[in-house]
Amino acid sequence: MQYLLLNKPYEVLTQFTDEHGRQTLKDFVPVPHVYPVGRLDFDSEGLVLLTDDKQLQHRLSDPKFKVEKTYWVQVEGVPTDQALDQLERGVLIQGKKTTPAQTRLLEEVALWERSKPIRFRANIPTTWVEVKISQGMNRQVRKMTAAVGYPTLRLVRVAIGPLRLEGLPPGQYRELTPHEVKQLKELAKPINTFQRPYKRR
C-alpha cells in the first residue's frame, strides 16, 4: 500500500485529468494507482492525502468518522469575538447548519508566497484565522467566513487529523512514515456499536 502527502499548490485540480488543460495532481505526483482522499478546491492550497488503500480512503472521506481538518484562513477584516462564536456554534449554509467548529486568531503565519498574489483592499486589514472542522460540505470554510461577514482571501489546509504539512514546499510530496499510517488507521477505525439484546426479567 502507498500513502502520500502532497502540498497542493494554488490553482491545481484535486484529480489526475482535466479536459481543459488545467494543472492536476498528475503534474506533481508521478505515482500510479493512488487517489486523493477527499478534495481540496482549485483555488485552495495545502495538504492532500493520496493512497491506493481504498478502505482507508473511504473511511477518511466519510463524514460519520468526523476526521478533523485544520485550515489557516486569511480573511478580509478583523473578526469579532461574536463572529468567531458564530463559526464555533455553526452557521447556516443553504438552509443547513454546519456542525460546531474550533477557531482561533493567528498572530504570525509563516507560509510560502502564493503563485498569484491575493487581491485585497488597501484600506481594509486582513486577518489569519485557524478553523478546524470535521464536515466536508462544498467550499464550506469559505461559505462559513462569508456568512459571518469576513470573506476568505486565501485558504490553506495545514492538517488532516494528526498529519501536518510542516516543512513541505508547495508542489512537493512525501511518503507517510509507518507511525503516521498507523495513526490514520486508528483515526478511521470503525466504532463497535454492538449491544447485548435486552432481556426481560
TrEMBL record:
Identify which top EC class this enzyme belongs to: isomerase
Question: What is this protein's record name?
Answer: Pseudouridine synthase
Keywords of this entry: Isomerase
NCBIfam families in UniProt: pseudouridine synthase (TIGR00093)
Residues of the Pseudouridine synthase RsuA/RluA-like domain: 2-147
UniProt GO MF annotations: catalytic activity, acting on RNA; pseudouridine synthase activity; RNA binding
EC number(s): the record gives: 5.4.99.-
The answer to whether UniProt assigns keyword Isomerase to this entry is yes
Q: Which InterPro entries match?
A: PsdUridine_s_RsuA/RluB/E/F_cat, PsdUridine_synth_cat_dom_sf, PsdUridine_synth_RsuA/RluA, PsdUridine_synth_RsuA/RluB/E/F, PsdUridine_synth_RsuA/RluB_CS, RsuA_PseudoU_synthase, TruA/RsuA/RluB/E/F_N
Q: Which family does it belong to?
A: Belongs to the pseudouridine synthase RsuA family.
**Its Gene Ontology biological processes?**
pseudouridine synthesis; rRNA processing
What is this organism's lineage?
Answer: Bacteria, Pseudomonadati, Bacteroidota, Cytophagia, Cytophagales
